[in-house]
Amino acid sequence: MGAVKPGLLAVEASKGVKLRGHQEEAVAAIVRGLTLRPGQVAPNGLRVTVQMATGTGKSYVGAFAAQRLAPQGVVLVVVPTLNLLTQMVGSWRAAGRSGEMRAVCSLVQDELPVGVQASTNGLMVASWIADAVRGRRPLTLFATYASVGAVADAYQFWARAKGELLAPLDLMVCDEAHRSSGHVEKSWTLVHDQALIPAARRAYCTATPRIWAPPKKALKASTGRKGAHQPLPEELAVSMDDVRIYGPMVFSMGLAEAVEKSLLAPFEVVVIELRDPRSDRDAAKAQPVPWGAGVGEAVDGSEDEVPAEQLAAMQAGLLKIAAERNLKRTITFHNRTLEARYFSETLNQTVERLHEQDPDKYPAEVWSQWLSGEHSVGFREEVIGEFGLTEEDDGLGYRVIAQCKILGEGVDIPNADSVLISGRGSMVDIVQAVGRALRIRPGEKKTASLIVPVFLKPGEKPGDILESDSYNGLVKILAALRSHDERMVEALAVPQRSGRRTTGRSAEAAYAPGEGHGGGDGGVGGAGAFTLPVRFESAPEDDVLALFIASRVLTGETQLWREAIGHVRNWYKEHGHLNVPYAALVGENGNYPLGRWLSDRRVENAAGELAPWRVDQLNGFGMIWSVSDARFEAGLSWAKVWAKDHGGSLAAPARASIGGYAIGTWLAELRSAAQVPDGQPGSLAPERRRALEEIDPWWCPAWPIAWQRAYAAARSWWLESDGKVDWAALPEETLFEGEQLGRWVLAQRAGHPGLEAEQRELLAAIGIEADPELVAAKAAADARPRVSRTDRFALGVAALAAFVAEHRHPRVPRPHRQVVEVVEAGPDGEENVLVQEVALGAFLNNAKARRGKLTPDQLAQLAAHGVEWAVAGA
Questions:
Q1: Could you name the CATH architecture of 257-547?
Q2: What is the pTM of this model?
C-alpha cells in the first residue's frame, strides 16, 4: 500500500462544496432557530436539534450554519471518535471555514490534519479561546465527547488563574448528538451544561434522535405502548425529546424521505439462510474451516477463540450472494477484533475452494483487509483508499473490509454497495452499519444490499420465520431500521395488493414516503415511491413476511388501524367533519399525524389498494376523498406553518421548502393562476384565493414578491421592537430574516415617490417614510447619463493597465479594487481629472465568463496587458 500523508483526506476535502436543496433548508432552519430576536434573552443559550439521515450531509450543514452564525467567532465541534474528528476538520475546511483550527484530543501531531495543533491542557485551550476573542479572529475547536471535559477545564482554570471569566463560545455543534443522551451523570452529557461550557448557541445534529433497544419481552397491553417502542431505561435522564436541553427540532429528514429524494441509495434486505455448524454436524462436515488467527487458540471455549465454523459459513454465503448480485464492495461488521481479523485473513482460502468448484462463478482472488481501533489513523486511510480502487487498478474485482467498531458514525469511506451484519451489537451500531451502504455520489444509480446471515438449527426449515428463533438477528435489524424511519418498516406488516407479493424471493412491500411533501406540482406524493424488499433464498408462505413483521417487530396492523380510527372519531366528534389539515397532530401527547394518515388513505383509495370495508368506515365520518382538494389543503396547511414562522407573510422564495414540502413552488404556481381571469382555464378558484388571503392579504401583490418578502422582514423587525424603530439610524449592513434589511430600508426611503400607493401605505404603517435628501440624490443620479458597456470596458482596461504597471503582472485577485484617474471634458470644454475606484477583479472575472461575446478588439486590448485567456487560440 502506498503511503498516505496524515490529514490527506482533510486537505483534499478543502477544495470546497456546495449545499444541496435539503441542506440549504436545514442550514436556514438552524440559523433562524439560533438567531436572537429583538428583546429576546437566552440565559441558557439558544438550542436547536436537526435530524438528517446518515449520509445526507449533517457535517456540512453544521459547518455552513457556523459560517453564517459565527464567521469570526469561536466554535466548538464535538464528535464521538478521533477518526471522525480528523475527518470533520476536512469537512469544515471544505465548507469555507477559515482561521485557526485546534483539536482538544490526545492525537499527536503526525495523526492530525496539516495545520492543526492539539492539546488537552485546560489552560492551553483557554489561551486559544482568549487570544481568538482578543484578536477577533475565527477559531474552531474540535473535540470528542470523551475529551470535551478539557474545554470545561479551560473555563474553570482561566477564572482561577486570571481572575476573570473566559468569553462564552459563539456556537457549539454536537455531531452524532444521540451520544450525548443517557444518564445524567454520564460524562458526555456535560456538553449541555451552560455553567461548565458557556455557549451562546448549541446545534445538535443526529441521524437518530433516540435509539430504542428492541424489547426483551413484550410490554403489558395496559401500558398502551407498542412493543417496539419500549421506553428508554429508567436511569435515562437526558432524552432528546427534552426541548429544555436539546431545543426544538427545526429540521427533520428520515431515511425513507432521503431515499425518495435520491440522496441515499434504495436498498434491500438479503437474508442468507445457513445451517448452524455448531449444532448441525452434517453442515459442519460440508463446510471446511480455513486456518487463521483465533482458531484453536483456546480449546476451553473461552472468548479468545473465534467461532470459526460459523464465520466460514458466512464467508461462503457472502461470496455466493456477491457472485449472484455482482457486488463490488462489502463492509462486514463484527463485535470482536479477532473475528474481523479472522474473517479477512482467511477469506481467500474460502475463495480458492469455491473457485476450484466453479471457476466461472467465483473469482480466484478477492481484496480483503480488516480494521479495528488498534490501527493508526494513517493505516486506516491507506486501507480505505485501497477499498476505493477498482478492478482496473489491481485486477481484483471484489473488495471486502472486515471491521470492528471503527467504520461507524460519520466516517467517510468510498461507496460500498453492501454490508454484512449479523444482528449482534447495539442498535446504534446496526443503524450506522446500514448507513455505510446507502451513501451515493450525485447521479449514481445503485441498490444497496443489507446482507443478514441466519443460522438454522437442526430440524428447522428455511422460511419458517414465524416459528424459528434463528431469525432474531433479522428482527433486530428491522427494529434498527424502524428506529431510523418507522413507517418504512411498518409498511412491511401490510399484505400488498396490485400484483406485489410478500412471498418467495421477492417478498416486498411498497412504501410511499414523503406524501404531501411533493415536488413542483405541490401535490401529494404517489404510492410506490420507494419499495423495501426483504429477500429470502427460501419461499415463505403467503403473507408470512407481513405476519412476521406484525407479530415480531410491530404490534400488528389491526392495532395500528384501531388507533387511527380512534383519532378520526375524536376529531369528527369535536369538529363535525374530516377536513383535517395535513400537518395536524392529535392525541394525548399531540404527536399523532392524523392529517398525514388521512392523506395516505386517499392515495391508497385512488390506487384501489384500500379495503372496501375501510372505505365504508371512513365514509361514516364524512371522509373527503378528492385528491385535488387534499393537495390544496396540504399546501394550505404548510402555508399556515410558513406564515406563522415568517410574521404572517407568504412571500416565500420560489425554492423555499418547509418540512420537505416545496412551499415556494406551490405558492408561485398559485400566483400564476391568480393572474388568469376568473372563469378561464387555469384560473384560481375564488374559495382558494380567499383561503390564502385569510392567511396573508398580500400573498399575491401587484409588485415583485421579493419586495413583499423584504417588507415582511422589516415588519417583523418593527413588531419585535415594539414599534420603536429609528429607521434612519438603521445600519446599512443590517441583516434580518435572510434579507439585506438595512439596504432595503435605505432604498425605500430614497425611492419612495416611485412606489405604488399601496406600497407607500404599507411602509407608512411601520414608520418608513421618504427622506428628501435621499430622494433628491436618487433623482440626480437617475438623471445622469448612463455609462455604456463600451465605456465601462474602457474603464476596466485602464484599471488593468494601472495594475500591471504597478505589479508587473496581470494576475489580479478576485476582490481587488483599483484606483484610476479619468479625464472628462467639462461643460466649457475644460478637462477635469476624476478619481474612480474600479472592481478590477470582478471586471476580469466577468469578462472571462463572457469572452465569447467580446469583440476581437476588446480581446486584443486585454491580451496586450498579458491576460493569457484573451490571446487568440488560448
A1: 3-Layer(aba) Sandwich (3.40)
A2: 0.61
